[in-house]
């Protein structure tokens, strides 16, 4: 993850522990927000594609030869790509991407919680502080 790389770079520069904790918190929070936005965008794209039966995927092809269902579409001269497999290929790529983006959001969120505990914020912060003393 990006957060781990940045923290490793900062450790190599011998920065203070507080600076590392704040860096971990900010980078993990940013990564969590971006991963969540990607997950929402992919879920929306999948929902719109399934609901419209793939018609949005071939909308740029201005051809009356294209049927309403993109799964049965044929390649035409008006479309710059072969439309026969665009529906299945898009969904086959989007579903794993959605799962990976959601997993990244969860892991970044956990990293953010750890950074909050390091700052003394949260339910586990008191026990962490006592263990350090």
In short:
The chain has helices spanning 2-12, 17-51, 86-118, 125-132. It has 133 residues and is mostly helical.
Secondary structure blueprint with pairings:
Elements lengths: L1 H11 L4 H35 L34 H33 L6 H8 L1
Helix pairs in contact: 1-2, 2-3
Characterise this structure.
This protein has helices spanning 2-12, 17-51, 86-118, 125-132. The protein is an all-alpha fold. It is elongated. The protein starts with a helix and ends with a helix. It holds the Pfam family BCLP. This is KCP3 protein. It is found in: Membrane. Belongs to the TMEM54 family.
The profile of the biggest β sheet is: none
Written as H for each helix and E for each strand, in order along the chain, the element string is HHHH
Helix content: 55-70%
Percent strand equals: under 5%
Low-confidence stretches: none
Rounded mean pLDDT score = 74
- By secondary-structure content and strand pairing, the structural class works out as mainly alpha
Count of strand segments: 0
Question: From the alpha-carbon coordinates, what is the Rg to the nearest angstrom?
Answer: 23 Å
Tally of separate helices: 4
Characterize the overall form: elongated
- Give the termini separation: 30 Å
